[in-house]
Every structure is written in C-alpha cells, then in structure tokens.
UniProtKB/TrEMBL annotation:
Alphabetized InterPro entries for the sequence: A_deaminase_dom, ADE, Ado/ade_deaminase, Metal_Hydrolase
UniProt family annotation: Belongs to the metallo-dependent hydrolases superfamily. Adenosine and AMP deaminases family. Adenine deaminase type 2 subfamily.
Protein name as it appears in the record: Adenine deaminase
Reactions that this protein is recorded to catalyse: adenine + H2O + H(+) = hypoxanthine + NH4(+)
Amino acid sequence: MHEFLKRLPKVELHLHIEGTLEPELLFTLAERNGVMLPYASIEDVYAAYDFSDLQSFLDIYYQGMSVLQKPEDFYALAMDYFRRASDEGVVHVEMHFDPQAHISRGVGLSTILEGLSLARQEAESELGLSSALIMAFLRDRPAAEAMQVLESAKPYWDILDAVGLDSAEKGNPPEKFSEVFGRAKQIGIPRVAHAGEEGPVDYIYQALDLLDVCRIDHGVQCLQDPALVERLRHQGTVLTVCPLSNVRLKVVESMQAHPLPQLLDAGLVVTINSDDPAYFGGGMLANFMACHQAFGWQEAVFCKLAANAIDNAFMGEVRKAQLY
Ligand code: HPA
Ligand code: ZN
C-alpha cells in the first residue's frame, strides 16, 4: 500500500507554507539571520512539539517564523517543501501563507511573495509541481488589520487564488470577517476558511452564510449537527481534513477515533491534507498511510479522495485533465 499511495498523484488543498519549516532549515535560517532560538538541538525542537491544543501549537509556530526575513528565506522554505512533497507523489499544492505574522515583524508582502513566487515557478519547471496561493487572515487579529492587508495586496490580487482564515479559532467567529470577505468577493477572489476544527458548528454555518466560502478547512465538528451535514452534502462543499494535525492538536484522541469514516459515510466531499507537516508528524503520504492503518482503507477509497482534491482545486481544466 505504501508504494501505491506514494505513486498516487496527490493534490494538497490545505497546507500552511510556514508550517513546513523543518528544524534543520529553522537552524540554518536562524544562523544566517542572527536569530536566537530557545532550542540547543534538533531534539530540543521536537521535544517542544508536544501540543495540548491549537493555541499551544500556534505559539511555537509563530515563534519559528521569526527566522523568515528575506525573499531567499521564503524561497528556501517553499522550495524545500516542494521537493519533499514531489518526492512523495504530490503533484499540486495549495498553500496558505500568513502575511500578518510577517508584516508585524517588519517583513513586507513584497518580500514574502518574491520568495514564494520564485519557488512556485521553479517547482513548476523543475518538478512539474503546480501550486496555488491562499492569503490567510489571522482571525485573532482585528478585522480592520485584515482589511488593510487585503487592500495593500492590490498589486498581487491577480496572483491570489483565494483568501483564507486561520489561527486561533475559539472566540474568533467568521462573522468578525464578514466585511473583509465581502470585499474579497467584490474584487473577485475566491474564499475558504478554517471552521469547525476546535470551534463550534455555528462557525461552519457562519463561514458558509457570511463569508460565502467554497471550501471548509477542517470542518470535522460538522457531525454534531445532522442538518449541517445534509447541507454540506447537498451543496457538495469540500472539507479539507487533516487527520495527523487533528491528532497532534488533540482535536481527536487518536487516528482510530478520527471521524473520517463517518464523514465519508455521510456522503461528504472529503479530502486528506497535511496542514503543517513539519509540526504534525509528516506530509501527505504519512497522512494517507495513517488512514490506511487506522481504517483499513484500500485503493478505491484513496483514488476517490485524490479525485475529490483534483475536482475542487484552484486549477485550470487542462491541468485537471492531465492529472486524471
Ligand atoms: N489551525 C488554525 N490555524 C493554523 C493552523 C491550524 O491547524 N495551522 C497554521 N495556522
Ligand atoms: Zn490549517
């Protein structure tokens, strides 16, 4: 099964590029940029990756980003990930990036996007790996700040495939960002949002009704509400589920306890994704393998999951046809 899953052309719809920062590159960039890290060794880093919930992860995730300062740092981050992903059979990556987490440290949008854009071009030409770009707003920051970021991104609107919403979910409902997402819609930028990871089902309704999203990132809490499940099924709304992330952030107790089989049984459009592979124990292949081991899924299920991701990617019809 490992060989089959490695060869299966995989499309990743839910990835935070800053969450691909492996400890080795973290140390390299820290040294290059003169950043002090609270870790003496790679073992220290892994010891710190023992999360109790989303917030405990976010604290470490934002700290790690402090080493990303120049275009070449963002280039190295993305290119390293694209090579690893390509090696495990990923053919297309839709990556969130968190501009506010960089702008607040004095690192501007042009720096971030210069590095990411170069890596995307090189991945396409050297690895045959295509990608899409999702500019995410931090939901635990003020909505006015998100609006400012959206407006200041005007020179880049045409390279954004979507805007997203991430960071600390509880207490930061999608409703807070209605205006920002309304503006994105007016500009013509598609929308996705994290909802129902740790937060209540009501946040999934809000993401659909107030943000008009085409995908729900995570969404695993939807099973608490049969009417919502029916609506998601009827609309064909895709859920970008991240099983290893959910285990590591204690959204679920274990892989065996993960609701993925119920989500599939309910007829929902499910995809499997890695979220933050450097922090949660592996990339797409590890997530697929974990599902095989926990649920005993065979080839047909994985082909369906891979097809769901292709169908719902921000990808032209020609590329979709290539991947089928
Ligand atoms: N949830 C919310 N925000 C995030 C995550 C996540 O899993 N990863 C990076 N930002
Ligand atoms: Zn995520």
